[in-house]
Amino acid sequence: MPAILLAVTGLDPQPWEQRLRALAPQRDIYLWPQRLGDPAEVAYACAWNAPRGLFARLPRLEAIFSLGAGVDHILADPDLPDAASASTTRSSASGCGASTSRLPRTRSRSA
Q1: pTM confidence score
Q2: Which residue range(s) make up the domain with 68?
Q3: Taking the CB of residue 70, how many other CB atoms lie within 10 A of it?
Q4: Domains of the chain: total
Q5: CB neighbourhood size of 30 (10 A)
Q6: How many CB atoms lie within 10 A of CB 1?
Q7: Domain presence at residue 110
Q8: Average pLDDT of 40-48?
């Protein structure tokens, strides 16, 4: 079963990791940079200000979920894989929302 990568900079990732483990106990949850695991196993990334180039190292990445308002921090990555789509989460009062809304891919690439 594909793994989930939690890549958070500037915030405590623990509440997100606990919520993901509760919602998807059968999946491996990797935590960047401490527990990246096998990049080839990651299909989903939950991110806030992840380092540029991180998603390009995930060959099976299917979707990236922003853990905050907006996806500019994701779309600004010049190495963002073409196959990945970006979504944003709606946070609950506890700071850990589970619902997502799909966003269109609006980033243009230069040839």
Answers
A1: 0.74
A2: 3-102
A3: 11
A4: 1
A5: 22
A6: 9
A7: no
A8: 93
With a cut of 50, say whether residue 95 has pLDDT above it: no
Alpha carbon distance 110, 98 (integer Å): 34
86 and 75 Cβ atoms separated by less than 8 Å: yes
Cα 102 from chain centroid?
13
The token duo for 24 is 């998807």
Distances, alpha carbon 45 to alpha carbons 48, 93, 110, in Å: 10, 22, 25
CATH number for position 44: 3.40.50.720
The reply to whether 52 falls in a domain is: yes
Is 107 inside a domain boundary? no
Q: For residue 93, is it left (φ>0), alpha (ψ between -120 and 50) or beta? A: alpha
> 62 with 43: CB under 8 angstroms?
yes
pLDDT at 34: 86
Beta-sheet pairing, 100-102 with 85-89? antiparallel
